[in-house]
What we know:
With 195 residues, this protein is α+β, with helices and mostly antiparallel strands. It has helices at residues 6-14, 19-31, 97-119, 135-143, 145-153, 156-168, 172-187; strands spanning 35-39, 42-47, 50-57, 62-66, 90-94. A hairpin with a 4-residue loop joins strand 3 (50-57) and strand 4 (62-66).
Amino acid sequence: MNSMNPKVDGFLRKAKKWRQELERLRTIILDRGLTEEFKWGKPCYTLQKSNIVIIIPLKESCALMFCQGALLKDARGILTKPGEHTQAGRWMKFTALQEIVEMEAVLKAYIDEAMAAEKAGLKVEFKKGPEPIPEELHKRLDESPAFKTAFAALTPGRQRAYIIYFSAAKQPRTRESRIEKCMPEIFQGKGLNDR
């Protein structure tokens, strides 16, 4: 088993919900030989510095997120998209420790498949720019070269998430307000969900 990251130890000690489930997922993942890191405030497991899986505590469940889950065959049909616009990630949710115990062999097989995909260099082909950029964002980018540079420096996924969020507002004033509110995070290189 790979060494445990002290930051993850602290995260699990503080967990108010799903602690046993998170600890069991951690044990299963470390048994596969992945490197344990702590990213985005969550336990993240990597292979050759590439993210493979993340353990995520939620309100109603906890989840095992496969960062490139769209590449997995998912023969059992148990993976779902975390959001309707998600392209690469897939997760499976759990509401009881017993579910994880019963699924252990399946989880190991899915993790092994994700590791094999990474070793083979497989990548999810992202749809490029399917969302039109709202006029209010175009205007703001044209007005501020610094903001344009900061927005361009974001990963394509982060740019897309912001564009979807800004575009979802019906009123121009609301779109402008959302852009204004998100500017500090964009300047810091943060994604919409990193706040």
